[in-house]
Amino acid sequence: MSQLIDGTKISTQVLEEVASEVELLKAEFDIVPTLAVVLVGEDPASHVYVRNKVKRATEVGMGSIEHRLEAETTQDALNDLIDVLNNDPEVHGILVQLPLPSHLNEDEVIASIHPAKDVDGFHPLNVGALASGRESLVPCTPQGCMIMLRQVHPDLSGKKAVVVGRSNIVGKPMAALLLQANCTVTIAHSRTKDIESVCRNADIVVAAVGRPKFINADWIKPGATVIDVGINAIDIDGKRKLVGDVDFESVADIAGAITPVPGGVGPMTIACLLLNTTRAARHQLA
Q1: Which of the four, 22, 82, 281, 284, has the lowest number of CB atoms within 10 Å?
Q2: Which residue among the candidates 118, 120, 203, 247 is catalytic per the annotation?
Q3: Which of 6, 13, 88, 97 is catalytic?
Q4: With 0-12 CB in 10 A as exposed, 13-18 as middle and 19+ as buried, what is 263?
Q5: Which of 53, 159, 172, 213 is catalytic?
Q6: Which residues sit in the known binding site for NADP(+)?
Q7: Residue 120 a catalytic site member
């Protein structure tokens, strides 16, 4: 059995660091780092995510503001709200929960958030800064994956890494972070030929494709580290169960280290969102 990379435990350590930084910002500058969350519509999963984010923010002493908007909210009304939050000095981070209702333009919304308050790290300026190796607010899930990886590999230099998936939210920024850590990086995707062999060559495999149990033991080199970003709800024997993009049972027997689902990357994403908010608050003081 491989080493289990416990995201719940590691996220608790990150949140303790965040709480300490919150106290420092209060003591040094008399400010309370504050996250504004905008939720449009009634998507059940989004409501759960937002509730968890606000709960964790409160636990570490941060301020949180919720804006819950009707599903019929117009683009102009949403943009106007973001403009108000951009210009509010007491708001340090802005998160618009995705996905949005289909009539709203997500790219326009993301671009309307001030880059200094873009704690999701999705604004084009932050994306460009990450790609060019400059300091920026980094997307939360890839950032959490890197923290977990360094628990196993303090020095990632020279490791062969394969990222399975090329989304703007996970795959591409994950590859950029691994490259910054001096890994040799391959992005594999639906058009990759002989994708199993590509993955079998890797010291590190990051799975982010959104397909349940897509990657099995035949894809993994013995001793490799596997980070499973996927979270998929499937029915097993009539019961709803959450599984990753990796077939945990088979891969755990061959990998050197692996993240579970749930309890792996998920808790790290929220912890890194709050970490980004404290970083944004401090940078806004400059």
Answers
A1: 284
A2: 120
A3: 97
A4: middle
A5: 53
A6: 165-167, 231
A7: yes
Query: Which top CATH class is 30-115?
Result: alpha beta
Q: Mark the binding-site residues, compressed into ranges.
A: 165-167, 231
If one looks up domain 140-266 in CATH, what number appears?
3.40.50.720
Whether 53 is catalytic is yes
- Annotated catalytic residue 97: yes
| Cα–Cα distance, 70 to 42 (Å, whole number) | 8
30-115 and 140-266, same CATH topology: yes
Q: How does pLDDT run along the chain (286 residues), one tens digit per residue?
A: 689 999 999 999 999 999 999 999 999 999 999 999 999 998 888 888 888 999 999 999 999 999 999 999 999 999 999 999 999 999 999 999 999 999 999 999 999 999 999 999 999 999 999 999 999 999 999 999 999 999 999 999 999 999 999 999 999 999 999 999 999 999 999 999 999 999 999 999 999 999 999 999 999 999 999 999 999 988 888 888 999 999 999 999 999 999 999 999 999 999 999 999 999 999 999 7
Task: Write down the pLDDT at residue 1.
Answer: 67
* Sign of torsion over alpha carbons 4, 137, 157, 164: positive
DSSP conformation letters of 127-143: HHHHHTT---PPPHHHH
